[in-house]
Specification:
Elements (H helix, E strand, L loop, with lengths): L1 H14 L1 E2 L21 E7 L4 H18 L3 E7 L4 H13 L4 E5 L1 H10 L5 E6 L2 H4 L14 E5 L4 H11 L5 E7 L3 H15 L4 E7 L5 H11 L2 E4 L3 H5 L1 H11 L3 E3 L2 H7 L2 E4 L2 H16 L11 E2 L4 E4 L1 H7 L8 E2 L2
Helix pairs in contact: 1-2, 2-12, 3-4, 6-7, 8-10, 10-11
């Protein structure tokens, strides 16, 4: 059954829509004994297809299928990078009375939270929940009475140090990101003073959507010695376009996560997105079967970060990589 659910989820991601069963009315959380025969309906809204988000969704589907077997129907839908589309998907899940919504990436989470304050929502691939919901004072638990989840936040201080280790003689670092993504802005604001502490001049290069990526990247490589790209969904979905500009210009990129690194980066300090998908599924199991209160759940973070490099880009740019780095898959 695990293999079947894995195949279903993979096909969902490829074709942007799959239904794994009939929707059933949502019910309030109850002890496991009272729901031993219940079949749960779970809706997954993923913002866009790219390797990191795909892995998180796959990990979620695999683990929840492992935990619940035939007692779960999972419907995966893809918003194609468009938050209004995510809102339509979330509204449909609410109409279908699913038992839980998993929202993959910040715009998907915001759309789900806007659609319901009753159905439990778990986010994943969310860098900073407080930034996403514009909360000034936050204690690390649910950002709303029905929202919790997992974070893909990497240690930005260590990423800044990594950039300096690779390029100590660089003068200007350009940060390339989508200004429509709240989590990207949070990362930029956090890492900028860390880079400046190493003596770099830091310049921001913002694009509003995928249509601007090539032009903004062209400006960035013309003014900077090295680029940094945070975990950014739009950038990740446009990694090839970024690489087509940066690599011929000879400007290296330190990436915020492995998917970006495989597409356009030299190196990264990255989490495993499959693992945070698995953790999100474990949280879903606690809510659905054991009656856990989503509003009391603390946001979970990845416990392990891996130093990774892109062999092809490093070879092209003549960059030597320390022995403790592993190649991106």
């Amino acid at each position: 059954m695990k293999k079947i659910l894995s195949l279903i989820c993979a096909l969902c991601l490829l074709f942007t829509l799959a239904a794994c069963g009939q929707s059933a009315p949502a019910s309030s959380a109850a002890p496991a004994a009272a729901q031993s025969d219940k079949v749960f309906n779970v809706g997954v809204c993923q913002l866009v297809q790219h390797p990191a988000l795909d892995l998180a969704t796959q990990g979620f589907c695999d683990k929840l299928g492992e935990l619940l077997g035939e007692r779960v129907n999972i419907t995966v839908q893809n918003g194609a990078g468009d938050q209004p589309s995510c809102a339509v998907i979330a509204s449909q899940f609410v109409s279908d009375e699913v038992d839980l919504i998993m929202a993959n990436a910040t715009p998907a989470l915001i759309a789900a939270a806007g659609a319901t304050n009753e159905i439990p929502i778990l986010g994943t691939s969310i860098t900073a929940y407080a930034a996403a919901f514009e909360i000034d004072e936050w204690e690390g638990r649910s950002v709303a009475k029905n929202v919790s989840g997992t974070s893909d936040l990497a240690p930005l201080d260590e990423q800044a140090a990594m950039l300096h280790d690779f390029f100590p003689d660089a003068k200007t670092v350009g940060i390339l990101y989508c200004n429509a993504e709240a989590n990207s802005r949070f990362q930029v604001e956090t890492i900028t003073p860390l880079l400046e502490a190493f003596g770099y001049t830091v310049k921001n290069f913002e694009f509003s959507d995928s249509n601007d990526v090539a032009a903004v990247t062209t400006s960035a490589v013309g003014e900077c010695d090295v680029l940094y790209i945070p975990t950014d969904n739009t950038a990740a979905s446009c990694a090839e376009a970024i690489n087509n500009v940066a690599l011929p210009a000879g400007v290296p990129i330190i990436a915020g996560e492995a998917g970006l690194c495989s597409g356009c980066g030299v190196a990264t300090l990255s989490i495993d997105y499959y693992d945070i998908g698995v953790k999100t599924a474990e949280m879903a199991f606690e809510i659905l079967v054991n009656g856990a209160d989503v509003s009391a759940m603390e946001i979970a973070y990845a416990p392990v970060f891996t130093k990774m490099f892109n062999p092809d880009i490093c070879k092209t740019l003549g960059i030597e990589v320390p022995d403790d780095f592993v190649a991106v898959g």
